[in-house]
Amino acid sequence: MSSILQTPTPDAARRIQRIQVITIIWMSVEAAFVVDDYEPFRRFVCSMLEQSSDFQIVGEASDGLEALQKAEELNPDLIFLDIGLPELNGIEACHRMSSVVPAAKIIFVTQNNDAETVRAALSNGASGYVLKLDANNELLPAVEAVLQGRPIYQYACKARRWKRSFGLT
Question: What is 30-165's CATH superfamily?
Answer without folding.
Answer: Response regulator (3.40.50.2300)
